[in-house]
Amino acid sequence: MIAKRGHYGAFLQEEWKLLQKMIVLANEKLSVPITCKIRVFPEIGKTVKYAQLLEEAGCQLLTVHGRTKEQKGPLAGVASWEHIQAVRKAVNIPVFANGNIQYLSDVEQCIQKTGVQGVMSAEGNLHNPALFEGRNPVVWEMAEEYLEIVQQYPCPLSYVRAHLFKLWHHTLQVHQHLRDELAKVKTLEGLVAVNRELKLHCQEEIANLKEDEKPKGGLPFFHWICQPYVRPGPKEVCKENGTSGMEGSTRGKRALEDEDDGNSDGLSKNKQKKKLRNPNKSFDPSLKPKYAKCDQCGNPKGNKCVFNLCRGCCKKRAFRETADCPGHGLLFKTKYEKSLSWKNGQSSLENIEVTAQKGEVEETILLKEAIDGVA
Predict the structure, then answer these.
(1) Which residue of 4, 16, 39, 348 could cross-link 10, Cys pair, CB 3.0 to 4.6 Å?
(2) What's the whole-model pTM score?
(3) What sections of the chain are H helices per DSSP?
(4) How many separate domains does the chain show?
(5) Which is nearest to 65 in space by CA: 84, 48, 85?
(6) Other Cβ atoms closer than 10 A to 207
């Protein structure tokens, strides 16, 4: 959504001429190889033309993510290796593939099918950092190693928390109380403590494991083993493995089409946090204040806008007409008048300096004549 609003990333892929100029300029200004990463179009032919255009513009290494820009979140689906293979055959620069990489065997299959020179992994590597080693270690081994690196090279706590949520994803479906703890802690030491507690719970489960017991929830391994996470579809109720409360119980993700009715029981985690900060806050859509609409685009208009427009439309009109809108803090007219005043002031100063210089020359001539007369 952010990339779509900002018109960058995959949402810039329709601006072919602009992308050409950007790559050409980057080659002129930078002394490093220019690499690009793209998502595919639904049509293989258009994807190939797009890749060839980038190569001609000066791209020296191309990574192709085999999904369209619409294939995100629950709509991700399977990446198309056919698109990647077509691009690899059509260009002369190195091509890397991205998509469908969950195990090391997938890397080998991808290279064989597409002929690419390299393979990238995003979510697969986040859930199992040992993916490219061909291992599936216990989760706490990777978590402890990661936390040691963070202690040596500090970074924002939100980054660390996000990585731990990925690593512990399957286990946190079982020990949900620790999921909440992981979300609430404010220090690195707190994250380490939660990680230690999760480790103890898992070790206790391993000690009590029955001989013929199999992983729950359709997982290939037990939840404490690093393994991929397959996103559920938009209408699929994802039954995660877990035992919270009673044996064999499962935790399903809230369906995307469910509507919040203002009650805390149906609220998302984010809204529940807001409710804790402000107990009187209501999420009932019928109680939301009604805003007057912008005369042009329909977005809420500024209450003090002189044009009865939203900020975006007001800014365009004020710029076009060189006008002011104090309600939105836009002062195009005032700034223009100040710039004219400044320019006129500069011209007056230049005239004064020229006059002064002429006066000095005339005074010098008169003085010279007087000296000559005395002589």
Answers:
(1) 39
(2) 0.62
(3) 2-6, 16-29, 44-57, 81-90, 104-114, 123-127, 139-152, 157-167, 169-172, 176-184, 188-207, 269-277, 311-321, 332-374
(4) 2
(5) 84
(6) 7
Does residue 308 belong to any structural domain of this protein?
no
Residue 247 forms part of a structural domain: yes
Q: What is the pLDDT of residues 4-27, one digit of tens each?
A: 667 778 888 989 999 999 999 999
Residue 182 contacts residue 127 (beta carbons within 8 Å): no
62 lies in the same domain as 158? no
The secondary structure element, H or E, covering residue 197 is: helix 188-207
C-alpha 274/C-alpha 332 separation (Å) is 39
> What domain range includes position 77?
2-121
> How is 55-67 classified by DSSP, letter by letter?
HHHT--EEEEESS
DSSP secondary structure code for residue 130 in this structure? T
User: Which of 91, 121, 151 is a domain's end point?
Assistant: 121
How far is Cα 259 from Cα 266, in angstroms, rounded to an integer? 8
Q: Are residues 148 and 109 in the same domain?
A: no
Amino acid in the structure at residue 357:
Q
User: pLDDT, tens digit, for every residue of 322-343?
Assistant: 999 999 999 999 999 988 888 8
Alpha carbon distance 324, 62 (integer Å):
47
**Residue 289 located in a structural domain:** no
Same domain for 159 and 223? yes
Same domain, 145 and 195: yes
